[in-house]
Amino acid sequence: MSRKQKTIVLLITSVIFIGGLCIGLLWKDLPLIKFNPELKLYEIANLLLTLTIGITIPLLVKKWIEDNRSIKTSLVDEIKNIISTLGKIKAIITSGHNDASISKENKDEINYLFHETELQINSLNEQLKIAFKSESKKIMEDLKKNYHSYKDYLTDGELMISSFIKVDDRFYREHNTESAKIETHLKTVIHQIHKL
Amino acid sequence: MEIKDKIVIEIDFTTTPGARYRTDGDFSGEQFLEEILLPKFEKAVAGNYKLLIDLDKVWGYPSSFVSGSFGKLSLAKSSELVLKHIEFKSDDNPIRLEKVINEIKSPRKK
Predict the structure, then answer these.
(1) The whole model's pTM is what?
(2) Chain A residue set in contact with B, beta carbons under 8 Å
(3) Domain boundaries, chain B
């Protein structure tokens, strides 16, 4: 239990204790409130319970909703970072198409950007596991499958061959299709997270 | 099984792994397999020890490099034997580690 939780528990216990003491005093010694002698104990308990529920539930629900929203915002930001890193790869291919050339340095940069993307996917995985453990497995499996499919398209084919020095129209179009697939998938993950 | 040998890819091979075949350019998966991985792996099998492979501190691993080296080794020697005698390390990137191990378990025939 964290320090904050301990303080809250202590505070609630103190309020209940003091509240109980006050009710006891009012009931027994002080004629400040005159109770109907026919009033049943369970009726008082019922009233107190209703008051407690009426006050605590809205507070707890509000806090839960706000916490949940901030976790989801953080997860969505992680996905946006992945989209942005993959966007840099797309920019290299687009630039290669515009200049009609692609260098070894460009290819090394693409490999490094994939490494960076993997670090971001791993970070998303860790955070998703903490916040939504049961749902995280399927989401991450699908995400990795789509990511590896895109990575394989770019790094398991002609692009990595040293004689590939020009991004032609065909490669450019094919790459745009593959790039759109992974981007669309990442955007659907954002919706999945909002629905959790 | 004890680890008695290791390959640090950034030191023993390159920081910029290339494509699949030697004909594809420098630092290919085929070159890595034939010059470094296979000889050290065979020694590990003969000596009944484990070979540690450090995957960190490189620019990245093209899928063709992974398939042309680890995948090809797995096809030649069986995934069980490869995973019995090789231990991988990547403190930087767990997904990289996962990809290499998956390639060994389900090598693509190219």
Answers:
(1) 0.80
(2) 104, 108, 110-115, 118-119, 121-122, 144, 148, 151-152, 155-157, 160-163
(3) 3-105
